[in-house]
Amino acid sequence: MSIRPIKSLSQATPTMEGAGVELHRVFGFGDTTESDPFLLLDDFRNDDPRSYLAGFPWHPHRGIETITYVLAGNVTHQDSLGNMGTLGPGSVQWMTAGSGIMHQEMPEGDKAGRMHGFQLWANLPSSEKMTAPRYQDISGEDIPEETDDDGVKVRVITGEFWSKKGPVDGIATDPQYLDVLVPPRQTKRFRIDTYRTAFAYIFEGSGRFADASKPFGVLTEKEVMGEEVFMRDNSGNRTLVRFGSGDEVKVEAGDEGIRFLLVSGAPIKEPVAWHGPIVMNTQEELRQAMQDLRTGHFIRAH
Ligand code: CO
Predict the structure, then answer these.
(1) pLDDT > 90 fraction of the chain, expressed in percent and rounded
(2) Structural domains of the chain, count
(3) Dist. CA 57–CA 19, nearest whole Å
């Protein structure tokens, strides 16, 4: 067993998306080699309805999958296939855009005005970029949740973990997407196969992801628990931890415990041509997508 070293630590940065939604971008719209097969992660936790109610009106996607995980509030959605629905707290929507969909995603806060959740974009390999679009809507009750003897709690959104299998299936990049809670001062190890690209996104509490075998890359107590790395504002921790290679991730929870998304997937290793919500392999394919949008051929029959 080898523990994955920490490759980098970063904080999500405030950004504006859709029709004026204030959110935090964890990563995205940059070099994708480090995160392959994932393209983007947005943290849309927000407690002020004025900052999110404008939502994400009609827009296209092609060549990717978007995975929306809601913690609080609702997201109503509607798309060019005629689907319509509401994602409630604890639920997940896995949307395979494939050859193209038009959709809208409109956040509505809960009674306290909170709209909390995450949207992850996973790339599709060239062989599946023009596949038929597909939705998998999963309600909170259908997501397996396991609690270990030491109180560590894991929700398995996709992939297999502790012999539980997440409800999302048939995904090209074989992702594992977990929501993990480690109680105060507990240490826990999580197996992640070596071939996978892996990251953790901390969204509550604090802790330390350690590389026990190699002192290099281990963070000091001050760096990990102090303000410079795990700076927290009123809306909680927003730290991205990217891991190097190894087959395990080890975390030591701080005094308040720690909650994080633990995501990994098989890299696609293909060229990326990216324009807004469309991600293809070549510039020519991007031009085609733009032309399809202009000429009304974006939605394909399958
Ligand atoms: Co969208």
Answers:
(1) 74
(2) 1
(3) 7
